[in-house]
Amino acid sequence: MSSITEKLKVKEKVGYALGDTAANLIFQTMVMFQLAFYTDTFGISAAAAGTLLVIVRVWDAIFDPIMGIVADKTNTKWGKFRPWILWTAVPFGIMGFLTFVTPDLSVSGKLIYAYVTYIVLMMVYSANNLPYSALSGVMTGDLAERTSLSSYRFVFAMVAQLVIQGLALPMVSYFGQGNSAQGYQYTMAIFSALAVVLFIITFSTTKERIQPDPAQKASVKEHFRDLTKNGAWIAMFVLTLILFITLAMRGSVIFYYFRYYINVENYESLFSWFNVLGTTSTIIGIFFSKSLAMKFGKRNVFIAGLFGTALFCALFIFFPPTAIALIFTAEMLRQFVYGFTIPLLWAMMADVADYSEWKNKRRATGIIFSAIVFALKAGLGFGGAITGYILSLYGYVPNVDQSSDALNGIVMTMSLFPAATFAICAICLFFYPITKNLEIQITDELTERRKSYATA
């Protein structure tokens, strides 16, 4: 069997997946707690925190494409993408820790510290996660194996999410003993150290098999021009941007929802169980993703999952704070149907890289994935910023009982706002041209092309 279509061993799939466990120990902490950390612990306003998250995206717009170009031009005995996982492991851990340290500075000094640490963290994240994501596109050319690899990846990512959701706040409370700044510092030291170890395991257990044609000659300008003519890439870029705006927006408001809207003495315990049960439901949904995609096609399953997610999100507008059972049930159902979609995003981006190679006869995996990682990070930043602006607009004041307007803003950000944007994501996929039949055609034709230069 050709090395580019061979079946991957479970050991390699697990090793690859542990890289996303590592990244999500820091990424999920950012999604769920960064805004609350900045406003309630670090000591800056919601609006200032929102502005910070937006401004950092400007630098990302410059840095991410550069990183994609650098990754594509990297040539080592380890491959193009694997070495970046090794090289960035320790810096990622250091910056994950420093971003959640509260220095003894003035408000302006803290703001400068927040900008510097967050910008550097996002740069390291790009240098790590862009090559990591692109790696899935060159480990195998087999469609089913790619979907399987993505399923492994996101099951292990959900394990990290479970850890963050179930243990982060209890650890902050335990280590802080009433001092949340100290609690965050010790908690992130543990998570960051573990992430470094897992990144090294990922580097050690994976292999790159798909290489671009050695005779390929194309400039960076030509690669970017290819992107602007690639309808599949455009659809996925817009979807990823809106999707991660939505995930960050809703994810960052959940803590506020439980602390101020549910507003019971054991809100931290309810918050943790809400997230743990929801993420468990997501993991169950992920297990159905591959079989559904093989039967109905990735695009169709993605569309159905997003519309279902939007529906269950919208239900939260009807729940009073005492309807705990309904709140938990709706979230578990929402996360179950969303689980169908999670492995498909990155599997489809690998398909987009194949589509570009098939159409243009040149491959630029790093550049294609760099734009998507930028969309992910932009969505993360804009989503957190939008939540900060919404809270500020509705009159949120930290660490006090909230007004009815502020509570309404929290509930809307938990329900109707994300429901609308999840639905928009589904609509984006109607413009994605790679059907199940076209996937098979592309794979077969590229396999024949690659036989002339691929090494077993």
Distance between the termini: 9 Å
Return residue spans where pLDDT drops below 50 for at least 5 consecutive residues: none
Write down how many β-strands occur, each being a DSSP E stretch of 2 or more residues: 0
Q: Mind describing the biggest β-sheet?
A: none
Class based on secondary structure composition and strand pairing: mainly alpha
Indicate the overall shape.
globular
**Chain-averaged pLDDT:** 88
CATH class: Mainly Alpha
Question: CATH homologous superfamily name?
Answer: MFS general substrate transporter like domains
Strand content: under 5%
CATH topology label: Growth Hormone, Chain: A
CATH architecture: Up-down Bundle
What is the H/E order?
HHHHHHHHHHHHHHHHH
**Helical content (DSSP H or I, runs of 4+):** over 70%
Regarding quaternary structure, what we see is single chain
* Radius of gyration of CA atoms, rounded to a whole number: 21 Å
Number of domains: 1
Give a brief description.
The chain is mostly helical. The chain is built from 17 helices and no strands.
Key phrases:
456 residues; mainly alpha; Growth Hormone, Chain: A; 79% helix; globular
Describe this structure in words.
The protein has a single domain (10-209, 218-450), classed as MFS general substrate transporter like domains (Growth Hormone, Chain: A, Up-down Bundle). The mean pLDDT is 88. Helices cover 79% and strands 0% of the residues. With 456 residues, it is mainly α. It has 17 helices and no strands. The longest helix has 34 residues, at 143-176.
